[in-house]
Amino acid sequence: MLKLLLLLLLRTWTWTRTCSALVRVPLKPMPSMRSQLRADGQLSAFLQERRPDLFQRRYFQCFPATGPSLRVERFSETLYNYMDVQFYGEIELGTPGQNFSVVFDTGSSDLWVPSVYCVSQTCGTVHRRFKAFESTSYRHDGRVFEIHYGSGHMLGIMARDTLKVNNVTVQNQEFGESVYEPGVAFVMAHFDGILGMGYPSLAQILGNPVFDNMLAQQMVEEPIFSFYLSKYERFSGSKLQGELLLGGMDQDLFTGPINWLPVTTKGYWQIKVDSVAVQGVDTFCPEGCQAIVDTGTSLIAGPTRDILRLQQLIGATPTNIGVVTDCVRLSSLPRVTFVLGGEEYTLTPERYIRRVEMLGDKEFCFSGFQAADILSPKGPLWILGDVFLTQYYSVFDRGHDRIGFALAKQPTRG
């Protein structure tokens, strides 16, 4: 009897300890920059002026060092991939804490927010700015960082301070304070900054990424984080629209087993894709290709040659407001299937087509695929963004260097 009681107490203690180490970060959807630019009639001009090499700047580390396309300096990034991002979460920096809305981005590894000393019009009153002089735990670094964008340079200084993500406090976290932010894209963004979730080798601001510091300071039980992203911004029956879970996974948010895929290159969360098929007939990369799983990109991107053919197969046509298809034909469009680790991950038209009301009550249907030529030593890369991740629960395992996918439980429309 005593042994049974001790076992029950041990199980209760273990369960409590594990649950206390799981950090739930609610992710809230908001209108994307692309939808706002489109609504304001500025999208076409914005893309024409700033589109060249947009993905090269974000994924510059994929290019061979001797390649002619690598014309940017090491501190290079781009905001264009964030144009369709809709999910943001809250963090606190400093003592007492100052609140910021950030994109939790597996496609980068740095944390940066605007500084109170930012001189750009984009900082203005639109975004919250970090006030170093109000934080008693602030530590000035003195080094300068520079991030290149198509419309100019972001400049800032590096610092250290206390970071709080929900109920977890990270001491002495390295981060960047931007003092100059170029371009209209920053004005339109609902987020204040970026919190990178990639590998340390991807970091551009010297120091450990946030999740690495959480591991080093033993703030989470397991070296795992997972994402649940809902497709619908508003629905009934549930308050959960999106969630980042630090330290584990939530089995109530997915069904079926998790299919694990090894990380092929530690930097981005990069995996092997067996093949991509449209309606099981037309196949892309039949001998396998590489893909980056990126929560900082909403669309699915792939090599131009493949994406142009894929757009034709789904009946999508380029226009000055984006790649569109006939909404009336939505139910008859083909399915697109990614084969990962021998398992099929199928996207229906309702998943890869985004319905948007414009020009009053007129509805447009935009393709969720985008062309991007991203070279790497392992060949051309695909990008699996939120179009894919809203259908599949994703688990990022740093302990075993692997990514897991399972079918996400979907809410119903309200």
UniProtKB/TrEMBL annotation:
Disulfide bonds join 285-289, 327-365. Gene3D superfamilies: 2.60.40.1960, 6.10.140.60, Acid Proteases (2.40.70.10). It comes from the Eukaryota. It comes from Takifugu rubripes. GO terms for biological process: proteolysis. The keyword Hydrolase applies. The gene is NTS. Pfam families: A1_Propeptide, Asp. This is Nothepsin. One of its GO terms (molecular function) is aspartic-type endopeptidase activity. Residues 87-406 form the Peptidase A1 domain. Belongs to the peptidase A1 family. Residues 1-16 form the signal peptide. Keywords: Aspartyl protease, Disulfide bond, Hydrolase, Protease, Signal. PANTHER family: BETA-SITE APP-CLEAVING ENZYME, ISOFORM A-RELATED (PTHR47966), CATHEPSIN E-A-LIKE (PTHR47966:SF37). InterPro entries: Aspartic_peptidase_A1, Aspartic_peptidase_AS, Aspartic_peptidase_N, PEPTIDASE_A1, Peptidase_aspartic_dom_sf. The active site is at residues 105, 294.
